[in-house]
Amino acid sequence: MARQRKGEVAINHNYCKRCNICPQFCPTKNLEIVGGKLVSYDRCIACFACERYCPDLAIEVVKIYHVETTPAG
Ligand code: SF4
Ligand code: SF4
Questions:
Q1: Ligand 1 pocket, 11 CB below 6 A?
Q2: pTM of the entire structure?
Q3: Which residue CA neighbors atom 5 of ligand 2 most closely?
Q4: CATH class name, domain 2-66
Q5: Which residues lie with the beta carbon below 6 Å from any ligand 2 atom?
Q6: Beta 37-40 vs 31-34: how paired, if at all?
Q7: At 43, is the secondary structure helix, strand, or coil?
Q8: Which pLDDT belongs to residue 73?
């Protein structure tokens, strides 16, 4: 069984100016601007890229946990 890192991000919508930088750096395409608002899905792996590249400190990783995954096949 493999351990996979999962994360959860918090978006501060007051600070976020929807510049679309973080979605471009997110390796799992967990972030997207939908209807003029940044949304996150459930694919975060807590890599901290969004936190690092956001010029407005509008997004942060708030939770990191590990899940056991059974390899397919
Ligand atoms: S921490 Fe990494 S995986 Fe999670 S939303 Fe940010 S860029 Fe994407
Ligand atoms: S980089 Fe920051 S300001 Fe830009 S869309 Fe992402 S959270 Fe919002």
A1: no
A2: 0.91
A3: 18
A4: alpha beta
A5: 11, 16-22, 38, 54, 56, 58-59
A6: antiparallel
A7: coil
A8: 67
